[in-house]
What we know:
It is a single chain. The chain is built from six helices and no strands.
Amino acid sequence: MKNIPCAAFSIIMLTLILAQAQVTMAVTCNALQLSACASAITSSSPPSAVCCSKLKEQRPCLCKYLKDPNLQRLVNSPNARKVANACGSPFPAC
């Protein structure tokens, strides 16, 4: 380590710490988190701020939900897509 300047060593350590932080902040897929959007999906009411927050939080999980036969009808409905668009979080291409 004598050959590595202190600044370079600090940058390497900071990079490793930030990489670890990103791993611990990964989303836990839980379709129940989308229950805040139920009224907006099943009616024509606009989505709440909580709904939009949860939808954006669960966005990485939407493809997984689309493959689940129990969730597919609800998540893949036209209203669900309207809610996602209204929240500024359109469905990912799965």
